[in-house]
Design a protein that fits this description.
2 domains
Length: about 270
C-alpha cells in the first residue's frame, strides 16, 4: 500500500510537468511511451506474441500514432500507415518458418499497436481544445480519482462482490465509493478553476462527464482484469511498484479518456458570466 501511494504521488508532478511545463511534443511523446510499454506488457505478458519483429512493428505503431494525432496528419497518410502496418504483420506471419505467428498474434498486435495508442490519444485531442489545459485533468480525475476512492471505500465498506469471477477483490461499495469520490473531486476542481481563472465551469456538465468517464474507466479496469484472469497473470508488469505495470495503472484511463473526449464535444462546458 505504501509503495502504491508513493508512486501515485510521484506520477502527479510528472503529469504537471508534461502538460504545463514541457514543450507541446512532450504529451504525444509521453502517450507514445506509455503505449509502447503497454504493447510489451500485453503481448509479452500474455505470451500472445513472441516474434520480435511483430513486437517491434506493434511498438513502432504505438509510438508513432500519438504524433499522427498531435500533428493532425491527413487521413490518407494514416490509411497508408495502417496498410503498411497490416501488410508487415501478415508478411511476418506468412514468412515465419517456425509457424509461431498465428492469426491471434496478428490481431493481438493490431489491437495493442493501434487501439491502445488511439484510445490514449484522446488526451492529446482534449489538450488541443479551447481551455484544454484545464479540461485535460478531467479524465485523470475520473480514472485516478475513482481508483483511489474505490480502494479506500472497498477497504472500509466493501461487503458485496462486484464481479468475483473477474476480480475477486472489487466490491459494489468500492465501485460506488469510487464514482462518488470522483464526482466530489471534480466539484472541488471546478470550484478551484472558478477561483483562480476567469472561467466558470458548467458544474452539471462537468459532473456528467466525470460520472460517465468513471463508469467507463471501471469497465476498462474489469476488461483488463478479465485478460489477466484468462492468462493467469497477477500483474501485467513490474514497472510501477505497488501498481504492477503500465496497464495495471492506466487501464481505466484507456476507457475514461475517450469517454471524456466524446462528452466534451457534446456538452456545454462553461457558463457565461455577466
Amino acid at each position: 500500500m505504501r509503495a502504491r501511494v508513493l508512486v501515485g504521488f510521484a506520477l502527479l508532478p510528472l503529469l504537471v510537468a508534461v502538460v504545463y511545463l514541457a514543450p507541446p511534443w512532450a504529451l504525444p511523446a509521453a502517450v507514445g511511451a506509455l503505449s509502447v510499454a503497454a504493447v510489451w506488457e500485453l503481448l509479452r505478458g500474455t505470451g500472445l506474441v513472441r516474434a520480435r519483429r511483430v513486437l517491434m512493428a506493434a511498438s513502432a505503431a504505438a509510438a508513432l500514432t500519438p504524433f499522427w494525432c498531435h500533428f493532425g496528419m491527413p487521413p490518407v497518410l494514416g490509411a497508408a500507415g495502417l496498410f503498411l502496418f497490416v501488410l508487415w504483420l501478415f508478411a511476418a506471419a506468412l514468412l515465419d518458418r517456425r509457424r509461431t505467428i498465428g492469426f491471434a498474434a496478428v490481431t493481438g498486435a493490431l489491437f495493442a499497436g493501434l487501439v491502445i495508442p488511439l484510445l490514449l490519444s484522446s488526451l492529446i485531442r482534449i489538450a488541443a481544445r479551447p481551455e484544454g489545459s484545464v479540461l485535460i485533468l478531467l479524465p485523470f480525475l475520473a480514472a485516478s480519482g475513482t481508483d483511489i476512492c474505490a480502494l479506500f471505500a472497498g477497504m472500509l465498506l466493501g461487503r458485496r462482490k462486484l464481479a468475483p469471477e473477474i476480480s475477486p477483490h472489487k466490491t459494489v461499495e468500492g465501485s460506488l465509493g469510487g464514482l462518488f469520490g470522483a464526482l466530489a473531486l471534480t466539484a472541488l476542481f471546478a470550484v478551484a478553476v472558478r477561483a483562480v481563472t476567469p472561467l466558470t465551469p458548467a458544474l452539471p456538465a462537468w459532473l456528467l462527464v466525470t460520472g460517465c468517464a468513471s463508469l467507463a474507466g471501471q469497465a476498462g479496469d474489469l476488461s483488463f482484469s478479465l485478460i489477466k484472469r484468462e492468462y493467469t497473470l497477477k500483474d501485467f508488469g513490474t514497472l510501477l511498484p505497488g501498481h504492477g505495470g503500465v496497464l495495471d495503472r492506466f487501464d481505466s484511463l484507456l476507457f475514461a479518456a475517450p469517454m471524456t473526449e466524446l462528452l466534451l464535444a457534446l456538452l456545454p462546458l462553461w457558463r457565461e458570466t455577466a
